[in-house]
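Forum > Structural Biology > Help requests

Title: Can anyone predict the 3D structure of YhfH family protein?

Hi all, first post here. I have the sequence for YhfH family protein but no way to get a structure on my laptop. I'd be grateful if someone could post the structure tokens.
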Amino acid sequence: MNITSPVEFFKTLPPKQCPECGQVIEEQAESYLMECDHCLSKKTE
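Reply #1:
Sure, ran it for you. Structure tokens for YhfH family protein below:
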């Protein structure tokens, strides 16, 4: 059984992509947004 460290696990995750346009989202701590800033700005609330 090969157990990897949590640091290695997170280093190997693919970058988060916007489901609307496919742009790679630069993640920030404590951010749970799924869309990029451009797609979020197009949405009306």
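The mean pLDDT is 84. The two ends are 49 Å apart (CA to CA).
Shout if anything looks off.
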